[in-house]
Specification:
With 174 residues, this protein is mainly α. The chain has a domain of 78 residues. The protein has 7 helices and no strands. The radius of gyration is 34 Å and the shape is flat. The model has no long low-confidence stretch (mean pLDDT 77). This is Anti-sigma factor. Keywords: Membrane, Transmembrane, Transmembrane helix.
């Protein structure tokens, strides 16, 4: 029989941590020896310190380099750029068909070995695959038969890739 879970308020942990820190600090500080160096030591340290006369020059150089590089990259070039993407008409249809065939084979195995397919992990993957199938069908309807939107084709390719990964995970569990 498990006891009910209880999560204390964050303030409780903060108070405990503060108390431990205060006790440890006081104990450590009480045990530490105190030393006072003589003036010659501080004079020796001060003599070795270099004045920071180049500090502002470094920042000035960095700022000017940043301004010059931003002007170079953001200049107006008045160029028109375009690209053309071509996707083979049957490519995505073949990919969709392959994933459907693979899923059908997994279903056949599930009919023979029901124990494996009834595991919660397998059910989650199956649910995820159904969601991806629904999204794929909806996207295919949005694309239509002319395939004119490259963004939609890219999304469909991504969905098919995710479906393949889920089918692979399902196959690994069988």
């Amino acid at each position: 029989m498990n006891l009910p879970e209880y999560n204390p308020d964050d303030k409780v942990w903060q108070r405990i941590e503060a108390k431990l820190n205060d006790e440890n600090k006081a104990k450590v500080l009480a045990e530490m020896p105190e030393y006072e160096p003589n003036a010659a030591v501080w004079g020796h340290i001060a003599a070795q310190l270099k004045p920071a006369k180049f500090f502002y020059l470094k920042w000035l150089a960095a700022a000017s380099l940043l301004i010059i590089s931003s002007l170079y990259f953001f200049r107006d070039t008045n160029e028109i750029q375009f690209s053309k993407q071509e996707i083979e008409q049957g490519f995505l249809n073949k990919t969709v068909a392959k994933s459907q065939i693979s899923y059908a084979e997994i279903k056949k195995v599930c009919q023979q070995e029901k124990i494996v397919c009834e595991k919660p992990e397998f059910r989650v993957l199956e649910s995820e695959l159904e969601d991806l199938n629904t999204a794929s069908v909806a996207l295919q309807e949005a694309i239509g038969k002319y395939n004119t939107e490259p963004e939609l084709l890219g999304q469909l390719a991504e969905i098919e890739s995710q479906k393949a990964e889920v089918i692979k995970k399902m196959a690994d569990q069988i």
